User: Which sequence fits this backbone?
């Protein structure tokens, strides 16, 4: 396992065990067995390390999307399953709860690597599943923004949207948007 992966794994475990605010470079170095100097060669600070960790985790979720879905219903099912997995991911919840400034960067100021990866994946999939009257790049970007909002805001809507209702309504929203 690479030094980077050991450090990212240690950060993941630390965030879940003691929280993001108490996870420091010193703590990550201790847990990973990687020296602090080495950590600082890879990341200038713990926030940059957290950003890489979040990118790694979200990019892994993106890989779950089948690039050749059978039809729009299959694609909708996949996207909703990935969104639900991200919504319930303990790491994202810990970061949402304790490091919301990190998320704000990717919600309000710029698209990150994992966001671009999902949009690119969606664009490629939609190029094969949408009708000729829809631009895959535009549709992928708008779909991503809608699903991201639903995922990150889900805790704000419980109640009235308990997890089962949230999943059903997200499915309706995605399918409705993709419907020709």
Assistant:
């Amino acid at each position: 396992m690479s030094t980077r992966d050991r450090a990212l794994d240690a950060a993941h475990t630390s965030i879940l065990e003691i929280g993001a605010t108490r996870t420091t470079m010193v703590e990550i170095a201790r847990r990973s067995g990687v020296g602090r100097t080495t950590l600082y060669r890879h990341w200038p600070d713990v926030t940059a390390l957290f950003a890489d960790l979040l990118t790694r985790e979200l990019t892994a979720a993106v890989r779950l999307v089948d690039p050749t879905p059978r039809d729009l219903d299959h694609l909708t099912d996949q996207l909703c399953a990935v969104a639900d997995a991200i919504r319930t991911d303990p790491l994202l919840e810990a970061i949402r709860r304790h490091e919301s400034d990190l998320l704000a960067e990717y919600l309000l100021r710029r698209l990150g690597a994992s966001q671009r990866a999902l949009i690119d994946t969606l664009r490629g999939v939609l190029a094969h599943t949408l009708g000729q009257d829809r631009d895959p790049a535009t549709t992928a970007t708008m779909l991503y923004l809608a699903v991201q909002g639903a995922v990150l805001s889900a805790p704000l809507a419980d109640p009235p949207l308990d997890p089962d209702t949230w999943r059903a309504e997200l499915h309706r929203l995605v399918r409705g948007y993709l419907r020709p």
Q: What stands out?
A: Residues 136-153 form the longest helix (18 residues). The mean pLDDT is 88. Residues 126 and 136 are 5 Å apart (CA to CA).
